[in-house]
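Consider the following assembly input.
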Amino acid sequence: MKNLIKTFRKKSFSRRYAPHQLDAPLLALENVSVRYGTGTVLENISFDLSPGDGIAVVGPNGAGKTTLFQVIAGIIDPFEGVVQVSGHEPGGHTCIAYVPQRSQVDWTFPATVADVVMMGRINKMGPFLWPQADDWEIVRRSLKFVDLIDYSQRQISELSGGEQQRMFIARALAQEAELMLLDEPLNGLDVPAQESILSILDSLQKREVTFMISMHDLRLAAGQFNQVMLLNKELLGLGSPEEVFTRELLIKAYQGHLHFVEGEFDTLAVGDECCEGDHHEPA
Amino acid sequence: MNLLELILNPLQYSFMVRGMSAAVLTGIVCAVVGVYVVIRGMAFFGDALAHSILPGVAVGYLITGGAQEPLFWWGTGTAVIVSLAIGAVSRGAKIKEDTAIGIIFAGMFALGIAIISTVKSYTVDLTHFLFGDVLGVSGSQLITIAAFSAVILLLIIGFYKEFLVLTFDPTLAATLRIPSRVFEYLQLVLIALAISVSFQAVGVALMVAMLVTPAASAYLLTKRLPVMMILAAVIASASGVIGLYLSYYINVASGPAIVLMATLFFILAWTYKTLSGRIRQGREVQEAH
């Protein structure tokens, strides 16, 4: 009887979310532009993603990486063009997870790691309902996936940067996201922490989770991802690192702000605007 | 006189029993709502909103000729309207939010005092409006307070997870398709209702203490939001009860006595937090050597 009431409440109160059209691409952008006031942030972006794709998005500061993610997540509407996730507008989907930059969150908030991961499940519970045993089980599994199960009762301020980022990925897993948008998750992390995030992304891809990750390190993007996107307001390239990171396209993306160094390919370019938004002209 | 007599003595007066019930109820409601006020850094908003209900109360006071009970409704109406107005103004504002709040706050407060001052013998009632008169709570007022407290608490518990996500990570709220704006305004209305419920107990000038002090004490003592709410409610109720006993035995005004007790609890919590932090640090240093 109790379960019957619960099911009734879940069914009758839950908002109806957009269905997934199986023959449509997981993500499709068509001529998407975003403008704020008189400034253009994104111009005429078109591309498709299939399930299981993992893409590194690179470009200088102000290239519109965060805005692109927000448009895809349905947090902001495009000024022109169409975004579709599995055949419908993103605003109706809850299978898109936006994994925020760590600086966007107040880390003194009174919550444990498990509490934050549980936040990913709240729209699965229905109004007036509290987490059930199966919700806690999913939280536990998500934490295990990112190797944070021993930290589940820690206060979030006690986590290191890499652990904070892994907690957010666990939250996206608890949300049962099929498309994850990771906004500069590697920023400010040391190499072991970066590697642990990258290996989690690897395992995600094996589970057919599609993701886009924005980053600054061109060399890391080229070394770790089969597909990269070069963005500077417009989409300059999408494909394998060899196809996209050409001298011509990189100069177009970064203008004067890069150095060419010897790398895996004939030459490799490194942007000098990395991480915290310095805008030094190269010497 | 033994301790039991000390405790039971004041309770033989029905006004003391009503006063304590009102102090506990409003303490709980303000503390629980106040948890969000503290976490979101809205103390100034809460203070301003409390002061802003004065003109509404003043108009009610003039129209009803000083009757106490209708004042609650005048206060409630004003609080809800002002909270929504501040919410709307700060959203599309061309000036900073705290500046906008400051302007509305002082303007409304001045208007309230101006209206009340047109009545000749206004000082006694004005003192009650400013600092509360919890011992003057009537039976029917107590029922209204209880009913509103129940509604506020039910809304906070019912929409707990929505408020939680909205406060911690508004972007997640957006991707989970939670109607953020509805809940933002609901949160403001809940703060407004908590203020109007507590108006009789502590008055407008000390209201902000009921909203932030117990919640801030609880914030120092726990790492989880639900625990923070319960702790804040316990601290506020204890402040209400102990404050009223103090008021009875050493003859100080009831509103300030309650607020002073809440402040004392905060000092204790802060001292405990600081000392335990020092001790832990010391132990870690020792272990490191």
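The mean pLDDT of chain B is 89. Ask yourself how this observation constrains the way the partners meet.
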